[in-house]
Amino acid sequence: DAGVTQSPTHLIKTRGQQVTLRCSPKSGHDTVSWYQQALGQGPQFIFQYYEEEERQRGNFPDRFSGHQFPNYSSELNVNALLLGDSALYLCASSFPPGSYNEQFFGPGTRLTVL
Amino acid sequence: AQRVTQPEKLLSVFKGAPVELKCNYSYSGSPELFWYVQYSRQRLQLLLRHISRESIKGFTADLNKGETSFHLKKPFAQEEDSAMYYCALRKTSYDKVIFGPGTSLSVIP
Predict the structure, then answer these.
(1) Which of A63, A80, B14, B32 counts the most CB atoms within 10 A of its CB?
(2) Which residues pair with A26 in a beta bridge?
(3) Averaged pLDDT for residues A100-104
(4) What's the pLDDT at A20?
(5) Of A45, A90, A101, which is closest to B44 when you measure between CB atoms?
(6) Which residue of A has its CA nearest to B9?
């Protein structure tokens, strides 16, 4: 099991563009959470997907949206990119909320907005 | 709102010395508390959680509800402990995980 995988590894975009990041969860996990980690800060929760629905959302604008597919993989979409969106985006997978659900993190996607 | 603070951005200790990484939280209830670690060029991973009351790699963490603290301790630091450490909180297992800003631990040989 490769664990949680994310693609791409790095991405460079310009302001106003749109970006899609992808995540495949650890085998057996069906819950995916996304985090934004700006330089020098801890990860900030964006949202969580379970059973193809957004279950929880952090304090992020609607420009940030997501999707979960039947195979539990997930996408994070960011529209109208701003310079401040430059960060490491982490995906974490786990068993459903309510269980002894340790989160396993992926390596992250480094997004740079110019 | 829940919040996690880690007052030290950087902490340097000599090998063999005791180490304590501080974590304070703000939440009126009884949260789940975690320590995550990120070694150089590795992904973020769970180190320990307070409900397990376990020692991992010689590290322990005690939850002090009166002081709302969850400090991470190890009696004798090793060079391989050098890493970024994040304290994190979750209200219940249904809720989002809130991370602190992290402390970079450097163990000097």
Answers:
(1) B32
(2) none
(3) 81
(4) 98
(5) A90
(6) A40
Q: What value does the CA radius of gyration of chain B take, rounded to a whole number of Å?
A: 13
Residue A70 CB: number of other CB atoms within 10 A?
7
Closest CA of chain A from B16, distance in Å: 28
Chain B residues lying within 8 Å of A104, measured CB to CB: 45
Which residues does chain B have within 8 Å of residue A108's beta carbon, measured at their own beta carbons? 43
Write out chain B's pLDDT in tens, 109 residues: 889 999 999 999 999 999 999 999 998 888 899 999 999 999 999 999 887 778 889 999 988 988 999 999 999 999 999 999 999 999 887 788 999 999 999 999 9
Extended strands (E) in chain B: 3-5, 10-14, 19-21, 24-26, 32-38, 45-49, 60-64, 69-74, 83-90, 98-99, 103-108
Q: Could you give the C-alpha distances from A41 to A32, A53, B32, B50, B97, in angstroms and in order? A: 21, 28, 21, 23, 15
**Six-digit token pair at A54?**
């957004």
Which residues from B are below 8 Å from A103, CB to CB?
46, 97
Strands B10-14 and B103-108, bridge-based pairing: parallel
Do A108 and B43 lie within an 8 Å CB cutoff? Answer: yes
Distance CA A10, CA A111 (A): 6
